Amino acid sequence: NKIWASANKMRSKIDANEYKDYILGLIFYKFLSDNEVNYLYKVHGWTVEYLPSLVEDYEDEDMAALIEDCKQSIGYFIEYKNLFSTWLLPESTFSVAELSIALNRFDSLISDNYKRVYENIFVTLQAGLSKLGNSPTEQTKALKGLVELIKDIPTDSKQDYDVLGYVYEYLIGNFAADAGKKAGEFYTPHEVAILMSEIVAEHHKDKDKIEIYVPTSGSGS
Fold first, then answer.
1. pTM of the full predicted structure?
2. Per-position DSSP letters for the chain, written without gaps between them
3. Which of 13, 33, 165, 169 is most buried per CB count within 10 Å?
């Protein structure tokens, strides 16, 4: 609800349907950032005090090995200064330029085995940064507001439901309903998808094998 309220505030600058690209892009970046930190905590036994040493330094053999391990295990590597959590620190110098650099570095540090998963996922976010204001200062101010808004979304996998999926579906539903640009062609409300599934399941309940072809699956709901 807070995120949707923020979208309404931004309407003077950005169309609501475009706003989702910033919100969803930043939420997913936070998810990837937190995912790497959690991996270091669980697998390598790191604590928060070690995070500042997370630098893209290939001359340091230990760090070079860690970078490669992250790439092979989770598919990418994000160094400390580009972590979402670092941007929230009081001493942070976060700016629109730093976000752009972080997204470029992310693309460069995707494992070859994961390129089909992560490659170009932030293209729309990066391409639209200039629309957030008439100057880098205005753009940075708008971005900081979004980062502050998104920081409260839990993406540490400790919840018993898919937080990222829930937020994504909620936002897509609202943006689609609000856009009025043939949005119904691209989004099926969750309740409708559930009803359709129950009808299909009823007709196939006695079969050992079920095959369903849906040429217009859209989001795959």
1. 0.78
2. -HHHHHHHHGGGTS-HHHHHHHHHHHHHHHHHHHHHHHHHHHHH---GGGGGG----SSSHHHHHHHHHHHHHTS----GGGSHHHHTSTT----HHHHHHHHHHHHHT--GGGHHHHTTTTHHHHHTGGGG-SSHHHHHHHHHHHHHHHTTS--SS-SSS-HHHHHHHHHHHHHHHHH-SSGGGT---HHHHHHHHHHHHHHHTT-S------TT-TTT-
3. 33
